[in-house]
Specification:
heterodimer, A: 427 residues, mainly alpha, Cytochrome Bc1 Complex, Chain D, domain 2, two-stranded antiparallel sheet, 17 helices, 4 strands, 38% helix, B: mainly alpha, two-stranded antiparallel ribbon, 15 helices, globular
Chain lengths: 427, 450
């Protein structure tokens, strides 16, 4: 019996607990192994971005419920939740995972397989509308997706007859949208997403047929086969934030060209790459450049405006100045002078007197931007906000202020004032 | 019905009851695998709230580990231990509680997962407190085994018994640890570390020693040749016992888990080459001068084929733990190739091969040679094809992603391979289903040599 006991004790208990101690318990009690702080990107009082160390935020009740649904449905079998510093993952998805980010995760959801993309940095990447459409039928918005449908997270909206998320669905979206948000506004300084180049391809049979193929694989679910913004996703699921662009009108919001003009190819390229934060339009910076360029040529075929009315000369966007408190207070003055509060409210919360009545050119309600959220549809760089002031947003009540400003400095002042409204105070 | 033949040590009835459950799981769990693999190409196929990918995957994984493999192995324990100790199993009346507790619990637990009760930890999904049923069943078996060893007639403890002892001790502890400690202890990154250890204890401290005990027993008896080297089996056992507990963190390389912990896991993973290669050499050596058995005997044929897959899969595992290899291959089908090569290609095939030896002896039924031949070929072709395709897929997806391909594009490039994988999977799954069906349909004959 002696040898049986030896085996049971040494092999069975001894080595097992040795390993458990070395690999599991020792690292856990080691102080230096568990830094609790997370690198958090925040906006300063003058609207700049900076990184600070801060603690991970705990889950709200709603997010915790969403996390339980994420576990229940086994999302974590196909979506990992940590980014490695190798294989380009910090360019594809975002900053590498930090120890402190997982402080409140029990059980952990690292995952071991990626049949779908990693979700460490998914928070804020897509809009709530996109997630709703994607859960209802992933193949509407990503035709090549192999994800199951989650139709039991929906209920029918009586007014529109369309699908809306039920309580569980909303909880899941709340969880997904807050994954990685302990890192704050990292996305606003993520060079691979916000970078935009000015190159463009030319319209040929080849680029058009390639562009169409790209369109049918990436865009058709929302923008529709005819480019009229009536894709299957919009017809089945209620989009609450914004309707997909109707390309046939030739009206595009985010441009360097004068008010009323069609955009340059490089404007469309930027919007496609950066996405429209908060709306269902995701950033496509991972797409090969030629895909993005050629799909622009195809999108332009939906409206004759591009042929008949060539784009006007683009504005010049100079290098932004270094923001100072003086610049911010000057910006505040410009904000008041320009009557911004009529729509956006005195504090920029999007709650001005006319905010409830505004409609875009297509008759859809269009709430003015709430600057305090820090979510800027046109892009997070000072240049993006500046551009919006100088060219306006075609198809919306937002005019161009190019001629109203006394100098471009007014533009920069109000730009940084708007950015400063989303400063992370006391955090 | 009498459980024992005259003067026999083995409780035939209990062995066959375990095996019948095993044959059921061997049809059920792989069938779920086929459905899962089809969903890669046809995601809407039979997809409901209770049968979509996220709900079915744990049923497949737990069904194979705790159903197919463990159930047949535990049946074989009731055959091997009396033979190796020279005494009947201690408290034979307890055996039936163990078998029904194990399989009943598993059935209920897998259904609960389908209904959304999932603990969120891979291979520890089964909702609490149900794993207690599995643990209690193992405890019963453990007591039976240890008391039988204490009362044994044979002086020496054969290597199979070492592995059985170690597997039962390890897994008794590990199932408590994984199901009742990890889900509640240490949130965050440390939870991943603790879970990684559990995850690989299931593979390394249950499936591996259990599977090896089966081969160490059935290869010599089926081939009628003595074990090649007892010294090698010592080296194999102790190197496995020492290195395997350390490897778990290699599931999370490049994660925020402290880097030195990862390095220890990598070193241990590579060192596993020692137990793997010594064991394989020992198996092949046992057939020295006796290779005709490989041709004649289904048990020997499948064991040796399994040893080849085990060698390939485990060596792949050691290489896969290297940081440079993990860069492209982690998170891809490369890992799935490794798990199928070892768990299916090695261990499940080994326990099935033992059924060809044991079933006729405990039931007196003779199986059809021709069906066994067909089934063996389907198993061998199916798993070989599957491992090859999945390895290739992993390398392709891993490298295109490293080159910066858009993620969905990398998925699109996988789709044709996934179809081939399904075909390979169907082939091997029909093959293993046939093993059970063939044995169950066997004609009762008398006069089988014990």
């Amino acid at each position: 019996m002696k040898s049986a006991r030896v085996i049971a004790l040494i092999a069975g208990f001894g080595f097992l607990f040795l390993a458990l101690a070395v690999q599991g318990i020792f690292p856990y009690v080691m102080k230096e192994a568990g830094p609790k702080t997370v690198t958090r990107t925040v906006r300063t009082e003058v609207g700049e971005l900076t990184a600070i160390g801060s603690a991970a935020r705990p889950y709200t009740a709603l997010e915790a419920q969403g996390r339980a649904i994420y576990i229940r449905e086994g999302c974590w079998y196909c979506h990992s939740m940590y980014l490695r510093p190798v294989a380009g993952e910090d360019r594809r998805w975002g900053p590498v995972a930090e120890f402190g980010e997982y402080t409140h995760d029990l059980p952990h959801l690292f995952g071991t397989r990626r049949i779908g993309p990693d979700l460490t940095r998914v928070g804020g990447k897509y809009g709530d509308d996109w997630h709703a459409a994607h859960y209802f039928d992933p193949r509407m918005v990503v035709p090549d997706s192999v994800m199951p449908r989650f139709t039991w997270l929906f209920t029918k909206d009586a007014a529109s007859g369309k699908q809306v998320l039920n309580e569980e669905g909303k909880a899941l979206v709340a969880f997904i949208q807050n994954i990685g948000m302990s890192r704050g506004k990292w996305r606003d300084s993520f060079p691979y997403q916000i970078l935009a180049t000015g190159a463009s391809s030319i319209q040929t049979e080849v680029s058009l047929s390639h562009g169409k193929a790209v369109y049918l694989r990436r865009c058709v679910g929302c923008h529709g086969e005819k480019g009229d913004g009536k894709g299957s996703a919009v017809s089945l699921v209620l989009f609450r934030v914004a309707q997909p662009r109707d390309f046939t009108t030739g009206a595009f919001k985010f441009r360097t060209t004068p008010s009323g003009s069609v955009p340059l190819d490089s404007d469309l390229f930027r919007t496609i790459s950066v996405g429209i934060r908060g709306s269902a339009m995701p950033p496509w910076f991972n797409l090969p450049e030629e895909d993005r360029r050629d799909v622009i040529q195809y999108i332009k075929t939906f409206s004759r405006d591009f042929e008949e009315f060539p784009p006007g000369p683009p504005i010049e966007i100079p290098r932004p100045p270094k923001p100072t408190p003086d610049l911010i207070s000057r910006g505040k003055k410009v904000f008041e002078e320009m009557q911004c509060k009529e729509c956006h409210g005195a504090e920029g919360r999007g709650d001005g007197p006319s905010s409830n009545t505004l409609k875009d050119d297509f008759g859809n309600r269009i709430p003015p931007a709430n600057f305090t959220t820090g979510i800027f549809k046109s892009g997070p760089r000072p240049e993006d906000i500046f551009r919006t002031f100088m060219t306006g947003l075609n198809g919306t009540p937002m005019p161009s202020f190019k001629d109203a400003f006394t100098s471009p400095d007014d533009g920069w002042a109000i730009t940084f004032y708007v950015l400063s409204l989303s400063a992370d105070r006391g955090k | 019905m009498k459980n024992h033949s005259e003067g026999e040590l083995v409780d035939n009835k209990i062995v066959s009851t375990w095996m019948i459950w095993g044959f059921f799981w061997a049809i059920f769990a792989p069938a779920i695998g086929i459905l899962l693999s089809l969903k890669f190409n046809y995601p809407d196929l039979l997809s409901t709230q209770y049968s979509h990918f996220g709900r079915l995957r744990p049923v497949h994984v737990n069904g194979v580990i705790f159903g197919v493999f463990s159930t047949i192995f535990l049946g074989l324990v009731y055959y091997m231990v009396p033979k190796l100790t020279g005494v009947r199993m201690y408290r034979e009346a307890w055996s039936k509680y163990a078998v029904w507790l194990w399989n009943g619990t598993l059935l209920v637990a897998l259904l609960s997962v389908l209904f959304g009760y999932n603990k969120g930890l891979e291979v520890a999904e089964l909702p609490n407190p149900l794993p207690l049923g599995l643990i209690a069943s193992l405890a019963i078996i453990g007591v039976q085994v240890f008391m039988s060893i204490a009362r044994r007639n044979e002086e020496k403890i054969y290597v199979s018994l070492w592995y059985i002892i170690a597997a039962l001790v390890w897994t008794g502890i590990n199932l408590v640890y994984g199901n009742f400690v990890v889900p509640y202890a240490a949130p965050g990154v440390n939870n991943a570390a603790l879970h990684g250890l559990f995850l690989h204890y299931v593979v390394g401290l249950w499936i591996t020693p259990a599977g090896l005990s089966v081969v160490y027993f059935f290869l010599p008896v089926a081939a009628r040749s003595p074990l090649y080297s007892h010294k090698l089996s010592l080296v194999g056992f102790w190197s496995l016992a020492f290195f395997y507990p350390f490897v778990g963190i290699h599931h999370y390389l490049f994660s925020p888990i402290p880097a030195w912990t990862q390095t220890v896991a990598i070193v241990a993973s590579v060192m596993l080459i020692i137990p793997v290669w010594t064991v394989v050499v020992n198996f092949f050596g046992t057939l020295r001068g006796n290779w005709s058995k490989f041709h004649d005997d289904f048990t020997v044929k499948l064991i040796i084929f399994g040893a080849v897959m085990y060698f390939i899969g485990s060596t792949q595992g050691s290489v896969e733990a290297l940081r440079s290899v993990q860069k492209p291959t982690h998170f891809t089908d490369f890992v799935i190739a490794h798990s199928h090569a070892t768990v299916f290609g090695g261990y499940v095939i080994w326990v099935l091969s033992a059924c060809y030896y044991v079933w006729p002896r405990v039931t007196g039924a003779v199986f059809h040679e021709s069906i066994a031949k067909t089934s063996t070929w389907m198993i061998m072709l199916g798993i070989s094809g599957m491992v090859f395709i999945l390895t290739l897929q992993g390398l392709i997806q891993g490298t295109v992603l490293m080159e910066g391909a858009e993620f969905v594009d990398s998925i699109v490039s996988m789709k044709p391979y996934w179809l081939l994988r399904t075909l390979a999977g169907i082939t091997m799954d029909i093959g293993i289903a046939l093993v059970g069906v063939n044995l169950l349909m066997g004609q009762r004959k008398t006069g089988i040599e014990p």
